[in-house]
Amino acid sequence: MNLTRWRSQTLGLLVIGLLAGGCSRVANVMVTRSVAVTAADDVCQKSVEVHLVGINRFEKDRWDNISMTEYWQPENPLRKSAAGYTYVIHFGDGPCKVTLDKKDPMVTVWEERQAEYLLVLADLPGVFQDLPGNADARRLQLPALDSAAWGWEKNIDIAVNNGDIVALVIPESNSE
Predict the structure, then answer these.
(1) Per-block average pLDDT, block size 10, for the chain (176 residues)?
(2) Could you tell me the domains of the chain?
(3) DSSP code for 74
(4) Best label site of 35, 92, 115, 147, fewest CB within 10 Å?
């Protein structure tokens, strides 16, 4: 077998392996995505705060079970302690679409914390029942920005509506 043919076969196998494995990291290079959060018209006109929080698997249970009503209280200890790894969006006084660029310093913070999940928390107007995890309309848990679950998607689009938070790009369920 000549050297050129061997190289092309090796490269082909490597590409197939990466595609089949759904790798989100190639040679320790992180593949991250931008996050676009769009508020529906009725939410955009109100004072609504949205938090993007990068957490790891050891924090997941606490974040899944915290009361969203308590979280949005001004002196909530978990919210205060997470300020260093929370990206805050304010609707009502600016654009209806905010994008967290993949080069934003917060993405680096999440990578350093080895975040495996992205939480989207919204202080929606109205009365909601406190429920665990994604059952609470004010909380949406997604795979981290560098997760293979996002496949080839370059951006993660999220809609904040008057009654819930919706991922407009759906990650693969079997990767996370």
Answers:
(1) 60 46 42 92 94 97 97 96 97 93 96 96 95 97 94 93 95 67
(2) 24-167 (2.60.40.4150)
(3) T
(4) 92
